[in-house]
Design a protein that fits this description.
It comes from Chlorobium phaeobacteroides (strain BS1). InterPro entries: Alkaline_phosphatase, Alkaline_phosphatase_core_sf. Zn(2+) binds at residues 51, 274, 278, 317-318, 440. The termini are far apart. With 481 residues, the protein is of the alpha/beta class. The radius of gyration is 23 Å and the shape is globular. The strands form 4 sheets. A 10-stranded mixed β-sheet has the order 7-8-4-3-9-1-10-15-2-16, with helices on both faces. Strands 5-6 form a two-stranded antiparallel sheet. Helix 2 crosses helix 11, helix 9 (247-258) runs parallel beside helix 11 (282-305) and helix 12 packs across helix 15 (418-431). The protein has 3 domains: 1-29; 42-323 and 454-475, Alkaline Phosphatase, subunit A (3-Layer(aba) Sandwich), CATH 3.40.720; 326-432, no CATH class. It is 40% helix and 14% strand. Strand 7 (204-208), helix 8 and strand 8 form a beta-alpha-beta unit.
Length: 481
Amino acid sequence: MRGFSHRLISIVTCIGAVFCFVACSTSGMVQSDRIPAQQVVPRYVFYFIGDGMGAAQVKLAESLLESGDSLEMTSFPASGMAATHAENRYITGSAAAGTALATGKKTTIGTIGKNGSHTATLKTMAEMSRDRGMRVGIVSSASIDHATPACFYAHVDSRKMYAEIAAQMASSGFDYFGGGYALGDLDNGRPLGRLVGTMKDSGYAVVQGWEALGKAVTGRKYWAFGSYDGTGALGYAIDRAPDGLTLADFTRHGIRLLDNDRGFFLMVEGGKIDWASHANDAATTAHEVLEFDEAVAEAVSFYRLHPDETLIVVTADHECGGLALGNRATAYESDFTILSHQKLSFQAFAGKVKTWVERKNVSFPMVLDSAKVYFGLGDSALDASLKLSPRERTAIRDAWKASREGRGTALAYGSGDPLTVTLIAILNEKAGIGWTSSVHTAGLVPVFAIGQGANRFNGVYDNTDIAKKLIDLIGRIDNSR
């Protein structure tokens, strides 16, 4: 592995050198990581992590916006690319990548906040911020004890140690946890309530829903969550009811509760970009990125009020699915906007199929009607490209038979129901979307930054360097007064 790491570092360094050469040729000057003595150090630090969000996921989401509009994150003045490999594997996982992003240190697959041999804990930038007198918040659309959020407050040998991870929330001393519930406090999807009691005993107010979160006041520590599924995660954005709490809501209230003169650190994860990409569901993936970007917009609103003391960094832990904006079937022709005809996630539709199978009262013509209603497939009045070919109709018929017979392949997150997978694959193909994998890939991930110190994030580098740059900036914050 040592030889691999050295080779990869050399490759990344060379790419970075080329990038910097081009940048310097354009601007006539070299950007430095050194902060001039007169430059203000950011007191308010935002760290956004889109789980599974590669450059293609970002561009796909942006393509669904109104003509001329752009995502908040892509409008940032500084941008870069980061390598994501783990200490012991080229294609990383969320635990190893999250640890790298939180501590600036590589670790092994599945490890949370520890070195690769599990012989030492690694201090996170969130813990450093707490120790410097800043308020600290952790937000995620996945369960709050899932790998990425856990990497900022927990130290365990395995990401699967959910109960142990959840228990470390209470001892973290952080000021705000928001988003999903805790998987470690669920039994077959039902809350046990033990963690709620532990959090309350540790001085946290535990609140759920719009009204309770709206009444939360500064000066107290909170664990806030919304409606959650059997894994403790918030529902997919594409499925959410109009009154459901969003990632942006938890971010906005987090800013309100953390705001103070000594500064704060807020990490926000868009956890279900990854899950939708595992399922190769392009429409649901795009909606998750758009919701993630709405959370970024909340930070931008704060930045505009405090431009001299705020830094916002947006990145990803890894890419998922090998998303390609183009495929063999459509060649140079694509129309990503037809993805807007998909009305619900793979998970929600698979739930419908399960009910149909159990009731045994749905015919194939009814399946085709549902394909039209929920995916636009077969409705040439919407778009001529949505017309189903004989081959596609046969594929749908075969998939429906497989669903009725209980056949299918389990996905990493959600159902591998054959009918659901087939309908989404047909829509993706018609749109011009391709997928190379149903798991993570080793592609470089984007980095966007705005605010004080943002220039440090231009270029090509390792994911540990993102953390090192942030840790250096946090270490310069003076809260001695």
